[in-house]
Amino acid sequence: MAEPRSNSEIASALRPAVLRLSRRLRQMRDESLDLSATQLGAMGVLFRGGEMPIGEVAAQEKVQPPSMTRTVNCLVDAGLVTRTAGDTDRRQSKVKLTETGRAILLADRRRRDAWLTTRVAELSAEEKAVLRQAIVILEKVNG
Amino acid sequence: MAEPRSNSEIASALRPAVLRLSRRLRQMRDESLDLSATQLGAMGVLFRGGEMPIGEVAAQEKVQPPSMTRTVNCLVDAGLVTRTAGDTDRRQSKVKLTETGRAILLADRRRRDAWLTTRVAELSAEEKAVLRQAIVILEKVNG
DNA sequence: TATTGTTATACTCTATAACTATA
DNA sequence: TATAGTTATAGAGTATAACAATA
After folding, report:
1. What is the pLDDT of residues B78-135, one digit of tens each?
2. How far is the CA of A50 from the C1' of D8 (A)?
3. Is B29 exposed, middle or buried (0-12, 13-18, 19+ CB in 10 A)?
4. N or C: which end of chain A has fewer CB within 10 A?
5. A30 lies within 8 A of chain B by CB
6. pLDDT reported for residue A1
7. CB B126 within 8 A of CB A16
8. Shortest CA distance to A128 belongs to which of B130, B100, B108, B59?
């Protein structure tokens, strides 16, 4: 599968590559004892976007609302995010990173990305350039 | 995150992109009622590599042996693969796609990749070229 | 009635630890 | 003793369905 040409060939080659890498990335948790990849993802959304409704976090992470409720519950219990009722619309619960959450997110990212950063560092400059561009494309593909 | 530059910035941007896309890819199962992404992955290894010990399938898919035992059990029950004791070393159990398995794999891939293929098709020729190269790099990063 | 979120529930994936059988 | 695989067990992640509260 060195040269997939058609759209479906690209899709067929991309799928296992992404699935295998994601498996590895989830396991990296063992090195950072605090956060799961899922929790880190949700916190990352809040880091970038600031305070927002829980539904928006779910949408950005491409999970269903009940899944994000569960993740946020864990983070609230750990004191990493706060959940407050919306002021204009009280159905919403606005979620926000705490200062502790922000600090732990940054520390955890550094530790967690150790493996992946090492792997990336071993690539050539050309390969890194391709990867940089590919990240944007992957996000685009994902909708 | 349009222009990550350092190795760790690339890692930090790549991680969520891969995790979110993998989530989506696992959900695609709903459209193809037969195989999970995990099962499809294992079958894909056998499709490419022919008959091999179960440990080898696990290694290629980057999962631990007990996880692959479980996956293979399901596939055997469904008649999609066969498991036979090794002839030279009877500790091994060699696994092989059945003809049915091969046919279902190919049919399922076509159906399952429908979403991803559509997304890929919407990319420009340049973006597809980047993605083609990136797939190889992702596999390399993954070890 | 429609929307936002939560609760209840169930299933898949995956891992680690302990075990069996063979080398 | 070492290796290949399986069994037993546990935990995380995710979904759907049903519900509550608010708009």
Report:
1. 999 999 998 899 999 999 999 999 999 998 888 877 789 899 999 999 999 999 999 9
2. 44
3. middle
4. C
5. no
6. 47
7. no
8. B130
